[in-house]
Amino acid sequence: MILERFKVPEKDQVLVSEAALRRTVTQIFEKLGVSPEDSAEAADVLTMTDLRGVETHGVSNMLRAYVRDYKAGKLDPRPGWKVVRESPGTAVIDAERRLGVIVGPKGMRLAMDKARRVGIGVVTVFNSGHFGAIGHYAMQAAQEDMVGVCFTGAGLSVVPTFATKPLLGTNPIALAAPARHEAPMLFDAATSAIAGNKIRLAMRVGSPLLPGWVTDKEGTPIMEEKPVFDREEIFQAPLGGTREQGSHKGYGFALMAEVLSTLLAGALPTMLVPGSGSKNHFAAYHIEAFTDLEQFKTTMDEMLKTLRTAKPMAGQERVLYPGLSEAEEVLHRRAHGIPLHKEVLQWFAECTSEMGLAPLAQ
Amino acid sequence: MILERFKVPEKDQVLVSEAALRRTVTQIFEKLGVSPEDSAEAADVLTMTDLRGVETHGVSNMLRAYVRDYKAGKLDPRPGWKVVRESPGTAVIDAERRLGVIVGPKGMRLAMDKARRVGIGVVTVFNSGHFGAIGHYAMQAAQEDMVGVCFTGAGLSVVPTFATKPLLGTNPIALAAPARHEAPMLFDAATSAIAGNKIRLAMRVGSPLLPGWVTDKEGTPIMEEKPVFDREEIFQAPLGGTREQGSHKGYGFALMAEVLSTLLAGALPTMLVPGSGSKNHFAAYHIEAFTDLEQFKTTMDEMLKTLRTAKPMAGQERVLYPGLSEAEEVLHRRAHGIPLHKEVLQWFAECTSEMGLAPLAQ
Q: Is B255 near chain A, with CB under 8 Å?
C-alpha cells in the first residue's frame, strides 16, 4: 500500500474513468506505430497499474517516458521478438528494443504454456524497454490459477552496502498467487528502501524522504527526514537502509534479481553496461503439478484471512496482506474514477493535441 | 557476513578441526539410528555451515536440538521419503518426519536432475525437521554449474507489519550462483530483521539487540538498543523493522517464501498449524538451458569483482558481495580450526560420553 505522503493531494486531483484512460492510452501507442493488439495490451498494463493504486508505475510517471523513447527511436514499435534459446521448461527472449509493457504479458504467457506441460516455466527477456509494475505479470499467472513470480534487473541507482556509488538498480521482485474468496496475494516490491519512481512522486507532491531511504553522494545513509528537490543530491539505499538494519539483505535481494533476470538471460548487468535496457525473469508455477488446486485456494483463503483479521497494533486500523489494498483500490477506482494529478492531465492534453487525437475524457 | 557483536569472544573460543567435527557429528547421528550415508550427509551440512562462519546455524545452536528431537521420537532416523506428486519439472516430497539436513541435499539433487532434463527443476518438501542454513543447498547447485534457489516456511516468530503477534516464521531465502575466479555468490538471509538463531547467539554472548530488530509483546517495534535476557520478552520484526523503513517488504518476502514452500507443497502454514514442521522449496536452474555457461561465469566474475573492488564508504575497509566472506572463512577455518564456544564443547563432552563415543578431538 502506498504511504499517505505519496498520494496525489485532493486539490490537485482530476478523476478519469478506466474506459477513457484505456482508450486514450491505446490511441497514443497506435499513433507511435504500435499494432492495435500490442497497443491495447500496453494500455491494459498501465491502466490496471493505475487502477491498483500503484500510481508510481502507471501513466503518470511512465507513459511520457515511453512516448519520448519511441519518438527518439530508442524503442521499436513493430510486433515480434527473437527466441534465443529454449528448452521444455525455459526460454530466453531478445526483445530487440521493444517496450517491456508489450513484451511482458507475452513473456508470462510463454512461461505459463511451459508450466502447463512440465509443471514450471521460466522465461527471461533482455534488450527491452521498461516493464512498468512487474506485479501485473505475476497477476496474469494468478488469474489462470498459477503462482506467478517476476524479477527485474534494471537501472543504476542503488548503492551496495558500504559502497560509495550506485552499482545496482531498484531490481523489484513480485509474486502473485490465487485465493478463492480473499483477494489474490500480490506482492511487488523494489529491493531498494524505496522505489525510484516514489522519489519522483515525492518531489512532485513536495513530500520529505524518511531516514534510511537514500544515501548522500558518498554512499553514507541519510538518517534524518528531509525533503529532496533534486535527484542529483542523492543515491538510493537498499531495503534495510543501514548495515545494522539489514541493508546487506536488500543488497542481496537486488543481486538475486540481477542473477535471475540479467545473468540467466545471457545479458550484462547495468553496472557493466550503463544504459543497457531492462532484463526480466517470468516464472509460472502450475499449481496442479504440486497439489490440489482447490486445497491450495482454501489454504490461501485461510492464511490471508488470518492476516487480514489479526488484531492491529495501537494506532493502526487493520493488518493488510500484499494485494488487499490493491484489490480494494481497483473496486473503488472502477466506481469513482482514477485520480490523476492535474499536471499529468496537462501532459495528456499536449500529447493528444500534438498527435491529433481526441482529448482524454474527464 | 556476521556482525562483530555475534562472534564468539576469543577468551571463550576452542578451536576444532574440520575432520574432527565431521567425525564426531557423523558418529552422533549414527548413534541416533541414522544410516552411515545419511549421517555423513547431515554432518557435511552442519560442518560446512560452521566452516562458512554461519555459526548461528552450525553445530552450536542446532545439533543439540536435533539430538533432543531424535531422542523424543519427533524425528524418524530411517532412510527414505515419499514422493506425493511429480511432473517433468517438479516434485512434492513428504519427508515423513525426517530431519531437514538429511532430506535437503536429496531435495536439491532431485531438482537438479529435473533441471538437466527440462531446464528448471523445483522440489517442495513438507513434514520435515529443521533444514539448517539453506544456503548450503543452493551451493550444491552452484557446485554443479547451476543456479540454486531455496525458500523456507518455518516457525512462528515474526510479527506482520501492524499486527500484534507472530504469524510468520523467519522464512529465509537463499541463492547461489557459480563464478570462475571469484568466490561463488552465496546469499542466504532470513526475511526477518535478524535471524532467530542470532537472538539466541546474542543472549549467549551478552550482546544488545539493535533498533528495529524486534517488537514488544504488543507488536510495536522497539527502537532503542538494548540487551535481551529472555526470548519471552520480545517478538521478531520483519526486515525493514518499521512500516516507514519498509517492514511491509520484509513481511511480503516472508509470505513469498511461505507460498513457494508451504503452499506449493500442499501443506498448511505454521500460523494455521502451530508446531508443524519446516516446509522447503528447492529450485535448480540449468545455466546451459539459458545461456553459454562460460559466458555466464565470465559475467559473474566481472560483476562480483566490480562489487568487491568498489571504493568503500568512510570508515569501511571494503565492499563485500554475498558469499565472499563465507568463502574466505572456509579457507581460514580449514587452516586454523573452527572456533566453538567452550560451552558448546561442554555439550559435546556430555553427549559423546553419554553415547559411549570418543570425545570431540581439539
A: yes
